[in-house]
């Protein structure tokens, strides 16, 4: 393999893979997307990410980088061929990292839970927590964007990628639950942001089709339930 | 408050606070440590970290930064008054970030669990997982340190801080369980590293006293159990 060749172990359904793709698009890096089967996991995945066995995996020459937010930061630091992804000010960077961690550790687990929860009461509580999180992120948007289009200002940045990667799945969950999660009433700024984000040239071609993802989610939800049961 | 004054909401028992302290020590930053009571949480804590309500909180002039690894990166980026904490090469940085996230997301939850688990079988399984994690980290040490004293090379770096902050608690858990967790047999390099790390001038004065921490852990374990029960 040529020393600078870039490959990405991918799946069109994975929000985490989408993060890496958007970051590579921002930096105009050409890369080969290697579709990962996931059920079962490929030997290449097991070999390149033995700790988590999860996509995305970025293969850059002989370097292997795992974990989506680590990958996005790596891409930002290695390639200067596009706008910066993390803010340039250390404090703004800290704020972006704080909220990206919040999204992954606190907010998204509720989104995932919606795919497996069956009891109405628990579902209702989870929906409320998702909306509360989005209201918090709406406040964060006001502070970070300073009146501009994105969390990152004029351009898509770290926090835009961290949250925006979940938009297609959010829309699918709205269909499944018949509840508006990211709506104009409670989160008008994020509602507008979601439209802007999704139509950006570095995002739009890689955004999953909602109909196709909705169809896929039916079988996926069963797989997640089986996975969670096995884990217990 | 003068615009560059540095304060840290702290507690001597918190490994996460220790991360921030070590980073500040490395950069030779003078700071005021404000002891946080935790039970109950102070108004200052609730106001400065409303999302997680957790220490450490770094107050730098009018900037408030939360989450220990975010704080360590902020300190590294703001102050050039000491050696770099994150590696200078983007790939080495990615590796350090990957393993720091592993420590927090995969490895430490087992350490914390030991304080609350009561059943022998579950305790045994958890002890094994902790050791397995340390064996993995021993391999990582070989790759990162390249024959030098620390993960970060000649100086203490990001990954040293991320793991080293837990050393005192590990020793306390060894006393409680009568099991060697970080020993010379299975992890000879980390055993040596732990001694080197703990005796560094930027670490040693802030390392909790093991006897005192052991004494504290007795009541703390009951509090954790009560907290977990309430959460359920």
TrEMBL record, chains A, B:
One of its GO terms (biological process) is glutathione metabolic process. Its EC number is 2.5.1.18. Residues 4-83 form the GST N-terminal domain. It comes from the Eukaryota. The keyword Disulfide bond does not apply. The keyword Cell membrane does not apply. One of its GO terms (molecular function) is glutathione transferase activity. Residues 89-220 form the GST C-terminal domain. It catalyses: RX + glutathione = an S-substituted glutathione + a halide anion + H(+). Keywords: Detoxification, Transferase. Pfam families: GST_C, GST_N. One of its GO terms (cellular component) is cytoplasm. Belongs to the GST superfamily. Tau family. This is glutathione transferase. It comes from Dorcoceras hygrometricum. The lineage of its organism: Eukaryota, Viridiplantae, Streptophyta, Embryophyta, Tracheophyta.
